Amino acid sequence: MSVPLKILVPVKRVIDYAIKPRVNATHTAIETTNVKHSLNPFDELSLEAAVRLREASLPGPKKSPHPTPSVPDILALSAGPAKCTDVLRTAMAMGADRAIHVEIDPKTSSGKDKEGGAEGESQELEPLGVAKLLAQVVKAEDRNFVILGKQSIDDDSNQTGQMLAGLLGWGQATQARDIVFEEEGEGKGGWMVKVTKEVDGGVETVRSPLPMVVTTDLRLNEPRYASLPNIMKAKKKKLEKKSLEDYGVDGGRRLRVLRVEEPPARKGGGKVEDVDGMISRLKELGAI
What we know:
Blueprint: E1 6-10, E2 13-15, E3 37-39, H1 41-57, E4 73-80, H2 84-94, E5 98-103, H3 127-141, E6 145-149, H4 160-168, E7 171-183, E8 191-199, E9 202-209, E10 212-216, H5 228-234, E11 239-242, H6 275-285
């Protein structure tokens, strides 16, 4: 019997991509008060990929020409303050079946670093903490496929997926631009996942059996909009509240941000009379 695909899609609430970030007054973090937040764009790609996999497994016009495992459940998860429920409702409006919100109050010690942290500093989980949390959720929810954005647009760490695969001992494929499932063998009931990603000068394809962790890149798909009827339906879908303690995860920080500065303003360009003048100027600047 074919193994069903039980998908976990982690999502993150970040400052909206159209907003220009500003450093706070204490230079300890980016200012987030009264700033528009939205679903991390790379996580939108992951959600769309998960929903398309389910559509491809069903009979109808969207069925994939490739064999695709059945997808009985798409679970979205976010860890953060109470307002993370907004992005989870968006995820369910896009097609997730249910959601878990691991609530982290930035005013409590669970989200602070081991020395207390600086006032105004971001107290969100670090990539390793997120990976440890996801590993526990995978076990508790019996997931066999985790698909997440390759990075969040706020800290750009690009670490969580790789750390999660290491903690679980699963195969991994990063920066996916195409995901195809193949039957492992007649009568075996297993699945192989073939992932294609762009690399310098071409593409690279990797294959791994389930269970697997995949991180998504921009060329994978174009996410759908959450329609008004689906937004209304999402309000009735199940959203569980959990804590780090429920999963036995330590949210303590191991890294401290010493100072955050805006990049210096770019200086205006200059003109030179000829090629020799350009070479002289580049030598003065230490470029050559």
